[in-house]
Design a protein that fits this description.
single chain; 0% strand
């Protein structure tokens, strides 16, 4: 048995030494790979490289005239990019909703109502009025043109004329019937024109 134990101890020591050597080698290889990848990222087109800079791995026998042309092209591209950024840009205004989307949000109010004077109309009337306003904008911006939506736009124009700019709850409650009937009338018209919302 002592021979077997001694042999096993020797094998264990050799295995432990070999494993430690392999671990050290693996760590060194990983570190070297990371260093190489970081260096390549800066010199030969990696993520952080300057795309206009000539590649460090370009063949040394490349024609100098070609290199000069590519540098000139890079300079021109950089100059054009600089000129493009110098012009002030106006903030883009959000595009009106599609008629389909605006109508869908208006339809979502069909099952809702309130009782004027009971204190529960602020949200409902405000929402329906906002949905009608957004539908009006979408119909006017639609490629089919406002003439295609003549009836609903006329109905909303009448309603908005009555409402004016005042969107307070007491004011909207005065026009409860007009707001709800305009919503319902537009729903009926749109149901007869399914190609406008599908």
């Amino acid at each position: 048995m002592p021979v077997r134990t001694t042999a096993r101890s020797g094998i264990r020591r050799a295995t432990n030494t070999t494993a430690a050597g392999l671990r050290a080698t693996a760590v060194a290889v990983l570190a070297a790979a990371a260093l190489v990848s970081c260096t390549q990222g800066q010199t030969d087109g990696g993520l952080r490289a300057d795309p206009s800079a000539p590649s460090a791995t370009a063949s040394p026998s490349a024609d100098p005239a070609e290199n000069a042309d590519s540098v000139d092209n890079a300079d021109q591209a950089e100059q054009a990019a600089g000129e493009a950024t110098e012009e002030p840009t106006a903030p883009a205004e959000p595009a009106p909703e599609l008629v389909r989307d605006a109508f869908a949000t208006l339809q979502a109010t069909l099952g809702e109502t309130c009782t004027p004077g009971a204190g529960d109309c602020a949200y409902f009337l405000g929402r329906v009025t906002q949905e009608l306003t957004e539908l009006d904008e979408a119909m006017r911006a639609d490629p089919k043109g406002p003439g295609h939506f003549e009836q609903p736009l006329a109905d909303m124009k009448v309603l908005f004329g009555k409402l004016g700019k005042d969107r307070s709850t007491p004011h909207l409650e005065k026009f409860f019937t007009e707001i709800v009937s305009t919503r319902d009338g537009i729903n009926t018209w749109m149901q007869d024109h399914p190609d406008d919302y599908r």
